[in-house]
Amino acid sequence: MEKISRQRLWQNTGLAWGIGLMVVSAVFMYWHVTPFGNHSLMMSDMGTQYIPLLTALRHALRYQVFHFYTFSASLGSGLVPMVAYYLLSPFNLLVVFFGASQIPIAASVIIMVKIATIAATMTWYLQKHFHTTRRMTVVFALAFSFCGFVAVNDFDLMWLDSLVLLPLVAAGLDSLVTDGRPVLFFGSLLASILTNYYLGYMTCLFSVLYFAYVLYNWSGRTGGIRHWGNRVVRFGITGVLSGLSAAVILIPTGLGMLLTAKSTTDSLNFRLVPEFGAEFFTQFGVGATNYSQRLMHAPTVFVTSAVALLTLAYFVHPQFTRRQKWSAFALMLALFLSMWLRLFNTIWHLMQAPAGFPFRNVFFFSFVMVMLGFATWQAEPRRLARRWQLILPSFQVITLVGGAASVHVMLKLVTGRSAKLTRYFAGIQQVHWQSVWLSVVYLLLTAAVIFGTQRLWRRWGLSLLVVTEVAGNFILAMGTSQFGDQRAYAQAYQAENRQMATVNDPDGQLYRVQNDNTLINRAFQGKYNNYNDSLAFNFHGVAGYSSTLNENTRATLEQLGLFSDNVRRIGDVGLTPLTELLLGVKDTVHLTAGSGRTTPSPSYSGMGFAVSSALSTVQLTSDALENQESIMQALRPQRQAYFAQTKQLRDQVKVVQTVKGVKTKYHDHHVLKLRITANGPTYLWAPTGKTKYSTMAVNGTSVKPLTNANGKTALLRLGDFHAGQIITVTFAAKYPLALYHTEVKTLRQTQFDQLLQTVRQQQFKVHTVASHFKTQLQGQVTGTPSHHELYLSIPYDTGWQATVNGNRVQPRKLLNGLMGVPLQNGKNHVTLIYHVPGGRLGAVVSLVSLVSFGGLAYWWRAGEAGKRRRSHAPKEKA
């Protein structure tokens, strides 16, 4: 019988995986999503981050290049934080079976397999936790694998691993409490932290709550707290050692994340105020949130009407003790407060308020609901008193409709008072009424099946309702998605990859490239800003977008005049001849459908050059033109400024309140007439970000940047002009010109060319050393008494170790975020090798923790075995 039971357990687990795959396949078929159609999930973070990162991962796996530093993420950064944040899921290995142009298909397959695996692990957990091999465990597992969090955030595929592992963590805690066996908890928690440390951190917090819940009920059943202290000690030691065993990833990642803007906190995020209102109740219904609301919505607690109804029934069911009910209520209340109160919500989100995709911890609430719902199903819901069989569905209907009505009321109250809340409630109202009535229908049908049918019909009826409801919710959640075009992407990627292959360091040199336009944009339905094209096409650029972006690097580039939309993005809009020199930009690539055109940068002078100590004294401010002037004066001092101020002749301002019938916040429309006072490229700098760059035109010709930089700061090139030339610049802004200190200046080309000649006399000739694992640069430069420091267009990072002529030297920071190396007089052979900061310490801590746990687990197991032998040994007669 035990063998049959074991076979049934794994049969159910496999069945859940198969049905889960069939359901998600059906949803993708409905929307014609790859591999079942031409729609791809290249939207939001999937298109801008995951597709380029997965393409880069495929390249690394295909060519066995596993460096710990990359020059393809903005100016360069350590790879461990980025890989730990985005790419450590073992499911990502599936990319090796797809071509580079088919990565969007691979991403869809990875999502499908992950969702199916969530169903499998949840089925396994329910069978273990409730000591049953009923087929209905599969149905309840599907409710979790297609919960609201999955339906709304499936394209953020890195998060799905935590849902795969959560049932194993919970099962491990069950085993630890009831049998004293910590191995499953240790291994599954470690895997959860390693695959995605962000949600792994949340899983650690949940483990504390779940352990307390299981321990409280276990000690109650066993008639005391005789072993309570033993279990607490084992839980604490196992949890700590599991976390420490991930130190090989966590320590380098932690050090890397301290260099991002995430290291700063906002006191407003720690206020004890509610995060949502009665609209919370609408989220229990089908279709309550869709793609268009992904950045702002209430907690997506959807787990089907059946689970919601049975969870309520748990607290009035006669089979469960008061102890069980109160402990379950306490667990759910703690999880609810972790979302509802901002202080707790911030703590659960690693001390940072999420920038979009809120309530990322909601799936723990869904997990507990499924657990309690299945417990009620096991206990036979028809045993409830008749009044409860009527009250509970009625209560659900009232809260569902009442929550929807509150949205309408709140929208009226906040309109005109808060633009953010108006968008929030308006977004909910777009879908919630039809969702509410559909949810009411499902709820009434579910109640009728659960309370009004016999066992066989109840099983099949509930199974049909759950499967159609999860599929329907998933379909509705994807309803407003901005799908990409897979065929267009594949064709454009292949053409662009061929053209970019000529500039992705084919000869081992190190240089950067500006990609002026890109072919793959045509495959995106929404706006695509090409931040991570360098990862997708294996070249070195300037732009970058990730949650692991080094803040010093980003801030330095922004201070030099480049566009930064927020602390996770830096673009290449705003490059000038000086910044092309400083950043080692060798070529500008103009792509076409047939063949590309590469324009060499006149400023390119390698990846570094010897400089005087004057450069180390330059302190960057918020004025990009002033910063560039200071840098040029440090590189080659002269009395005359490099930037010549243009002469303003006239500024006509017309106040416009609406454009094409739509109210505009850029209501001051300028017609600015200027006289150029020097020969060279002319730039506009609006330091307070009150300009609408997309309206910018010079003499009637648009000069708007490729990336939408409206409302931000960026140096905008107006064109190349001659001294005495008069130009007319038209643009829209929020204020009159004088109020936000707009500057228009011309770079004196002749003087800058002389600066280039000076710099190139001390150019650093560098190349990369071929290696599968080590990131190493070597080069030569000549030092002089007046030029005794090497400026490198590489971000300062403590992981770089430098030697000059075989002697170890200490790199230092230049221009707030770039790197300098001290030089000797004469020829200098410079070697730079990257070592992961904290990598060795992390490896030692992980190894010690693994060995320590192995020893403790063996000791604990031996102790448990000894207790069992003594308890079964025959007692001696007196």
From TrEMBL:
This is Integral membrane protein. The chain crosses the membrane at residues 15-33, 66-87, 93-126, 138-160, 198-216, 237-259, 296-316, 328-351, 357-378, 390-411, 431-453, 460-479, 841-860. The keyword Transmembrane applies. Coiled coil: none annotated. Pfam families: YfhO. Keywords: Membrane, Transmembrane, Transmembrane helix. The lineage of its organism: Bacteria, Bacillati, Bacillota, Bacilli, Lactobacillales. It comes from the Bacteria. The keyword Transmembrane helix applies. It comes from Levilactobacillus hammesii DSM 16381.
